[in-house]
Amino acid sequence: MKRLLAIVVVIVCCVGGVAERAHWRNRAPLWPNAKYTVQDRDRAVEGGMRFIYAIARDPAAFRDNGSDLLFAFQNIATTNGNPQLAALAWTMGHERAVEWRRLNPRIPEKAEVGTVTDLIFGSDTANRLGVPDHDLDEALRRQAANLSPTDYLGFDPEHEPPPSDFPKPCRVCGLQNARGVRFCVRCKTKLSMNSRHALFLDALVTTYSGELFGASLGGRYSDVLRWLPQMRPYPPHRQGDWAYYDAVYAITHVVYTFNHYNLSKIAPNCFPDEFEYLKSNLPAAIRDHDPETLGEYGDSLRAFGMTFSDARLREAVEYLLSAQNRDGSWGNLSDKDSYDRYHTTWTAVAAIQDFQWTQVLTCPTK
Ligand SMILES: [Zn+2]
User: Fold this and answer.
1) CA–CA gap between residue 353 and residue 303 (Å, rounded)
2) Bridge partners of residue 37, in order along the sequence
3) pLDDT tens-digit profile of 230-245?
4) Which domain holds residue 256?
5) Which tens digit of pLDDT belongs to each residue from 14-32?
6) 176: CA distance to ligand 1 center in Å?
7) Running along the chain, 366 residues long, what does each successive block of 10 average in pLDDT?
């Protein structure tokens, strides 16, 4: 308990002004004649982090999204180019990781696949935030080995691409029906299918996270990524159309899983169609005034090497900086879903933050 109190005191003392106490050089504009300075940007990032931390300290929100919230702090801590902001993110994440361990001491009886993968995501991130639990990790690895690729991903990436006939859970009774079933076997409700792009995204993230943790969650990451050519072509930009969003998020998660969530840059010729799709749709994404999607465009295009010398990226970053809410968040203030509130804020932070990239990755082997 003492340790927890001490950490809270540290966070309260630092939260007031990491960006405020920034070096005088940070008063420089973000680019020549920019409306905003480096300090404005870092202040906006800090405001976003404070907002995410407030959500993470809400018990219900943390119970529902604890592993993802830990990952937000761990990710900002390892990628942000401002050492003070990175340290603040780590302190916030470490304090929440202690709480996550308290809430998740063991695998519940009869845990479903989603519970196991979520515990793996959370435990792996808590380890990285300096709060390890080797006994839980070992139990999770044993449990993970009992499940099949289809349990995890809905398909087996070693043998087939993401399919178009894997239904979403029944919207009435919640049952996950088998491949090819069109009406829920329990309640006869008509089912809707997962898009191939959504399954691809999910498989990228799940297999990538499993390999990081040291457990196979449905197969090898490289086996999923090799289906990328079959995910093309991508549907045209259309605001409000889930086919478009699923495609954008599949592409951005090719970037994130390949560059370890923004630890490195990627040569655009590794994924030329994906780079071109994001680049050509960026102006439309700015016009949509949707910080969640625009945020993912921002850090992905910057990972591909786009800089503030590109007018489209300047416009995207200026829009995001102008669209921050007074409470530090981005997105719809009246949205009651805490996931939407913090996740949109996180993606906006990622799009505008300074990165500590050190290398450009070599392309995947075909
Ligand atoms: Zn049903």
Assistant:
1) 12
2) 29
3) 999 999 999 999 999 9
4) 2-361
5) 445 665 555 556 789 999 9
6) 8
7) 44 53 73 96 97 98 98 98 96 98 97 96 98 98 95 96 96 94 97 97 98 96 98 96 97 97 96 98 96 97 97 97 98 97 98 94 86
Domain assignment of residue 195, yes or no? yes
Structure tokens at 300: 């992905």
Residue 353: count other Cβ atoms within 10 Å of its Cβ. Answer: 25
The pairing of beta strand 360-361 with beta strand 265-266: parallel
The DSSP bridge partners found for residue 355 are 80
Instruction: Determine the pLDDT at residue 25.
Output: 60
DSSP-assigned letters across all residues of 193-260: BPPHHHHHHHHHHHHHHHHHHTS-SSS-HHHHHTTHHHHPSPPPP-TT-HHHHHHHHHHHHHHHHHTT
Using the mean position of ligand 1's atoms as its centre, give its distance from the Cα of residue 345 in Å: 34
Helix (H) or strand (E) holding 276: helix 272-287
Report how many domains make up the chain: 1
77 belongs to a structural domain: yes
Compute, in angstroms, the gap from residue 83 CA to the centroid of ligand 1: 50
CA of 354 to the centre of ligand 1 (A): 47
Is residue 266 within a helix (H) or strand (E), and if so which, with residue range? strand 265-266
**Lookup: tokens for 227:** 């289906």
The DSSP code sequence of 332-365 is -TT---HHHHHHHHHHHHHHHS-B----EEPPPP
What is the whole-number distance in angstroms between the Cα of residue 173 and the centre of ligand 1? Answer: 4
- Supply the CATH number for residue 273's domain: 1.50.10
CA pair distance 93, 69, nearest whole angstrom: 8
**Domain annotation covers residue 328:** yes
Strand partners, 190: 183
- Tokens 């088998």 sit on residue: 178
181 Cα: distance to centroid of ligand 1 (angstroms): 11
184-223 per-position pLDDT tens digit? 999 999 999 999 999 999 999 999 999 999 999 999 999 9
The answer to whether 314 and 282 have CB atoms below 8 angstroms apart is no
Region for residue 313 given its phi and psi (left: phi exceeds 0; alpha: psi -120 to 50; beta: otherwise):
alpha
Model confidence, pTM: 0.92
